[in-house]
Amino acid sequence: MSKPMRVQVEEYILDLQDRIVSALEKLDPNSPPFKRDSWVRPQGGKGTSCVFAVPEASHSDTTAPTSVLEKAGVNISIVHGTLPPAAIKQMRVEHSSIPYDPDATAALPFFASGISLVIHPRNPHASTVHANYRYFEITESEDKEKDPGRVLAWWFGGGCDLTPSYLYAEDAVHFHKTIKEACDPFGTAMYPAFKKWCDEYFFIPHRQESRGIGGIFFDDLCDQPHARLAADAVRPKDPEQIFAFIQSAGNAFIPSYIPILEQRINMPFTPQQRRWQLIRRGRYVEFNLVYDRGTKFGLATPGARIESILMSLPETARWEYMSEVGTEEGSEEEKLVKVLKTPVQWV
Amino acid sequence: MSKPMRVQVEEYILDLQDRIVSALEKLDPNSPPFKRDSWVRPQGGKGTSCVFAVPEASHSDTTAPTSVLEKAGVNISIVHGTLPPAAIKQMRVEHSSIPYDPDATAALPFFASGISLVIHPRNPHASTVHANYRYFEITESEDKEKDPGRVLAWWFGGGCDLTPSYLYAEDAVHFHKTIKEACDPFGTAMYPAFKKWCDEYFFIPHRQESRGIGGIFFDDLCDQPHARLAADAVRPKDPEQIFAFIQSAGNAFIPSYIPILEQRINMPFTPQQRRWQLIRRGRYVEFNLVYDRGTKFGLATPGARIESILMSLPETARWEYMSEVGTEEGSEEEKLVKVLKTPVQWV
Predict the structure, then answer these.
(1) Closest CA to B6 of B40, B36, B45
(2) Is B225 helix (H, G, I), strand (E, B) or coil?
(3) Residue B172 CB: number of other CB atoms within 10 A?
(4) What is the number of other CB atoms lying within 10 angstroms of the CB of residue B272?
(5) What pLDDT is stored for residue B144 in this prediction?
(6) ipTM above 0.90, yes or no
(7) How far apart are CA A40 and CA B124, in angstroms?
């Protein structure tokens, strides 16, 4: 008998975290290593945050920054607890695989594990990237000492998306192509469906623009029919197949991102380009604090680990009133804005 | 017969905006003047944003900043439109003076005018300040050409609060004392009630700390009983009395803030103090984007003027993972944090 899925996922994300952090450290051997920060959740669970930060480099207005990365976090968490009936009811709206019991009054145990990363490089020509892969389980209440309870519902979610300040079409194509190639063996309908979902999710309504140039985003992937995938579409359906898909997408992160980072981190840049990057980071903050479901859920959860949740925010961000940057026709800044207003099919 | 209240309020906020902007410009005669930016709302209304920004000063990591202010906006808006029945129903929860008609299916005209300001000085020893005074009316539908319809409900709201990065007790006392003296002639119960409300409102639950060191905050001030004021409390009740109170509070802004600004803007500061100021501004951004009702309402309103709504955000903000700044016992940073965790009675 194979190991329980929760154990397989835990082993995988631990290994993936290690590989990603190593790849980033290798890129910038002169910088301090990531800080490994393990924590325990009093309500149940644990995690390890691997964080890169160079606070000395930019709080001073006079010190020239030197590191490749400016802020980065590659975090894993493995938590469990109980969901009150109201939360289960709410969750059922989007996760139809949760068994429906209209008379349910008891809380149900849940288990969630995942890897979540955000990398903000310093060079304005190098894109910010975000990725997140997670596994969720709801189990039967454990009246007895047997552990854990039978799995009532489970699903995977996740995705990966790129947020440049300056648009390099070849970077966007490489990123999307690598992700698509990781998806295609599991069904060619997957990438287009999840690419579209990504464009819809990472959208800032009050700006009427996307946060970045997309990637993939998905949730609720399990053995049930999926609202975003046609009933007859080839797709992974059983736990092992879906987990194989998750691993394929997760493993694609390094080859999708590191090469474009290597390409851009040594490009010269001007104060004007740095300014535009900080304005784009302001938009990143706006999306994450106002719309991102994970962030909102985290901030509203008593006892949540705020430092992990707000890890995704950039080291610095900038807001200008009626900024002229990005509006000049034909400028490199305007080239990006155009694509954010109208998502592109990169592959 | 005196002028309609909406006209009186408009005249007052126009004059107050002019006085405040002049006082700020006088403070810093070497900086460029505020940019006056008048706009028209297609759905009805107009406004003038007076904005200070020195974008050249800080996007470069090497240019030393020189201006006293870093970002500031002193805005007025005078808008009108119609409220759908759902919005009226929602509004009634907090504004009991709105006539209750369970069968209401028609939209009602509204009118709103106010002044709103946020000033972010550059020196970490100088506090950020926010103030806002506003008047709201709901009127009868105008079937005929008579204009405007009879006022069905009206109220005033507003307040003023201080957000230092470094705590100077004498500044906090001066600020609160000046505001209290503006409130007291209208009833000594007003300042304590609205000071408490301010502490409750400008609170960041996920940080378990206040945004700043308070001031006053109030809403729904009209001729009806008020949830925050005892039935037998001396308080302004009719429109003219309440408007006189608003003017007293509004006029107190300059003497409450400008002297403490003058006191701090020439103090020397270190990169470490600048860093702490930017971290505090990150918290300011968190409060405004995640919790502030006005900001949330604005961002969710189609056609709202995003540039005016996000005017309140600082020029730059900073996020550090598990920052050690503010945690060292006995440090000036920790002194502020302590007060943010436990609001103080300054007068």
Answers:
(1) B45
(2) coil
(3) 22
(4) 15
(5) 54
(6) yes
(7) 36
Selected residue with higher pLDDT from A332 and A142: A332
Sign (positive or negative) of CA dihedral B186, B191, B197, B202: positive
Q: Quick one: B145 exposed, middle or buried, by C-beta within 10 A (0-12, 13-18, 19+)? A: exposed
From A120, A125, A165, select the one nearest A335 (Cα to Cα): A165
CA distance A257 to A164: 12
A148: cis peptide before it, omega within 30°?
yes
pLDDT band (50, 70, 90) for residue B284:
very high
Cβ proximity of A218 and A194 under 8 Å: yes
- The Cα–Cα gap between B284 and B39 comes to 27
User: With left for phi above 0 and alpha for psi between -120 and 50, is residue A59 left, alpha or beta?
Assistant: alpha
Which residue is closest to A54 within chain B, CA to CA?
Answer: B320
Instruction: Give me the torsion for CA of A308, A314, A316, A321, rounded to 10°.
Output: -120
| Helices assigned H by DSSP within chain A | 5-27, 55-59, 85-92, 169-183, 190-201, 239-251, 253-264, 271-290, 293-300, 306-309, 332-341
Mean predicted lDDT score pLDDT of chain A: 91
- Answer whether CATH 3.40.1500.10 is correct for domain B5-341: yes
Instruction: Return the residue matching tokens 């202010």.
Output: B69
- Out of B73, B278, B311, closest to residue A59 by CB: B278
Chain segment A256-287, per-residue pLDDT in tens: 999 999 999 999 999 999 999 999 999 999 99
pLDDT greater than 80 at residue B55: no
Nearest CA-CA distance, residue A128 and chain B, Å: 16
Q: Which residues are paired to A337 by β-bridges?
A: none
CA distance B97 to B39: 31
Q: Give the per-residue pLDDT at A104.
A: 66
Q: How many CB pairs under 8 A join A and B?
A: 127
| Rounded alpha-carbon distances, angstroms, from residue A156 to A57, A75, A312 | 38, 17, 21
Q: Which chain A residue has the Cα nearest residue B70? A: A320
Tokens matching residue B214: 């308070």
| pLDDT reported for residue A334 | 97
